[in-house]
């Protein structure tokens, strides 16, 4: 078997993971009820940190799902489960901190840091549980 024989699988997993990450980031935007991408374009570091934490928090269990899955469909199933856990994190943040979107719009780095940290912490635990 040559290295290139696995290229189709690589491309499928990579494209699938990018699509799943895109869906996750869209859900993140909808749930936070703010336009973080506009804020980022305007130079808002707090919004950028929040999005980066969310993306990293989902990418960790997504990578674990890719490594530990029995196949592509299995990876998608576990990625969706991981996404639900991460979305639960954001819903929890919204319940505790109802003004999170306004805080990010103000550039509140403390708020952004705690949001990003919790996303990465839960993502790491989520990824470990998939192994």
Key terms for this structure?
elongated; 131 residues; mainly alpha
Q: Characterize the largest beta sheet: strand count, sense, and whether it forms a barrel.
A: none
| Rg, Cα atoms, Å | 16 Å
Tell me the fraction of residues in β-strands, as a range.
under 5%
Q: What oligomerization state is this entry in?
A: single chain
What does the model show?
By secondary structure, the protein is mostly helical. Helices cover 82% and strands 0% of the residues. The chain contains 6 helices and no strands. It has helices spanning 7-32, 36-41, 45-68, 72-96, 100-105, 109-129. Helix 1 (7-32) packs parallel to helix 4 (72-96). The model has no long low-confidence stretch (mean pLDDT 90).
Mind sketching the topology for me?
Blueprint lengths: L6 H26 L3 H6 L3 H24 L3 H25 L3 H6 L3 H21 L2
